[in-house]
Specification:
136 residues, 4 helices
Length: 136
């Protein structure tokens, strides 16, 4: 049996395993889009609540802006925080991402912290309209 035959055999085996998995978990896989939609809807509700009454851990984002563009950026930053808090089980009342964890989780936390800094700057920095009538 040459390399090509072995590769074909591995691919056929992988396809067979995939088909078995799909058949065995059909109900769960069919239900997954509804679960994801429910999660997304609940997250959107949470962000709406954050806009109405921001929790102390979102203080760094400032007050939710009134204009639509700035509010959308604020919302993106708040969503990033809330998603991280849900995924990693953070319940710290004052720090958006909780304290820095030890080990490998600390790398993820630092990356999320940098991302949050960028989103916070975008949420707090109003954009200027550079129209043609702008004086130079």
């Amino acid at each position: 049996m040459n390399d090509l035959d072995r590769a074909i055999a591995r691919a056929e085996d992988a396809q067979r395993q995939r088909n078995e998995y799909m058949a065995e978990h059909r109900d769960e896989l069919d239900r997954l889009p509804r679960v994801e939609a429910a999660f997304d809807a609940r997250l959107a509700q949470l962000i709406d609540t954050d806009i109405a009454e921001p929790p102390s851990y979102l203080r760094a984002l400032g007050v939710p802006p009134q204009d639509a563009e700035s509010r959308a950026k604020w919302r993106d930053a708040a969503e990033s925080v809330e998603h991280y808090r849900i995924v990693y089980g953070i319940n710290d009342r004052y720090q958006p991402l909780g304290p820095e964890p030890a080990g490998d989780a600390g790398r993820l936390w630092r990356a999320a912290t940098e991302d949050l800094k960028r989103l916070t700057e975008q949420a707090r920095t109003p954009t200027r309209d550079l129209g043609v009538a702008m004086d130079l």
